[in-house]
Amino acid sequence: MSIKIKEYAGTPLREEDLKQGKVLSIGYSPKAKYTWSAGLAIGRYLAELKNTRIVGRQCDKCGRTVVPPRMFCEWCFRPNDRWVILKDSGVVNTYSISCIAADATRIKEPLIPAVIQIDGTTDAGILHLVGETDPKKVKFGMKVQAVWKRPEDRTGAITDIRYFRPIER
């Protein structure tokens, strides 16, 4: 049995009561200082991107290699064993064609976000953009390669890769 409350007991507060000091209130702006760490795996991954290298982690027990790297194998439930340097190429696992920008405005040139399985990895991928192609020509399994920012423009972020472009097989 549920009870539906139609009216709450007590006197409701009004903004005017707060402004006139009829209700005790305290204004406080905390000076919260904090730091955030990307952690060992993602921290190294981002640092390597700045140097045009994609790194992953490999598990010796099952042979799985993952990117973005993780320190723990989700298949074997054990720590991954080693860092591996991967190629900056891969295949499109899945994609979408978007005519709407991040701020929900319409755009003339469609964006093609895709999950790219980096060559040498196992059932893992990174979400990034596909560029330098007609959206109608994008296909599942299409071979792509990273297009990097200029060295002086890199910051150690996933956006150090501008996008992935199709390459011939």
Short characterization:
The chain is mostly beta strands. It has two helices and twelve strands, in the order H-H-E-E-E-E-E-E-E-E-E-E-E-E.
Written account of the structure:
The protein is mostly beta strands and 169 residues long. The chain has one domain (39-166). It is 10% helix and 32% strand. A five-stranded antiparallel β-sheet has the order 10-9-6-11-12, with no helix packed on it. The protein has a three-stranded antiparallel β-sheet with strand order 2-1-5, with helices on one face. Strand 1 (54-58) and strand 2 form a beta hairpin.
SSE blueprint and pairings:
Elements: H1 15-19, H2 39-50, E1 54-58, E2 65-66, E3 72-73, E4 78-79, E5 82-86, E6 89-95, E7 98-100, E8 106-111, E9 113-118, E10 126-129, E11 143-148, E12 161-166
Antiparallel strand pairs: 1-2, 1-5, 3-4, 6-9, 6-11, 7-8, 9-10, 11-12
Number of helices: 2
Structural class: mainly beta
| Run of helices and strands | HHEEEEEEEEEEEE
Q: What is the typical, i.e. mean, pLDDT?
A: 92
**Rg measurement, Å:** 25 Å
The parts where pLDDT drops under 50 for at least 5 residues are: none
- Kindly state the percentage of residues in helix: 10-25%
For the largest beta-sheet, the strand count, sense and barrel status come to: 5 strands, antiparallel
Oligomer: single chain
Q: What is the count of β-strands?
A: 12
Query: Strand content of the residues, in percent?
Result: 25-35%
Provide the spatial order of strands within the biggest beta sheet: 10-9-6-11-12
**Rough shape?**
elongated
What is the end-to-end distance? Answer: 66 Å
Can you tell me the number of structural domains?
Answer: 1
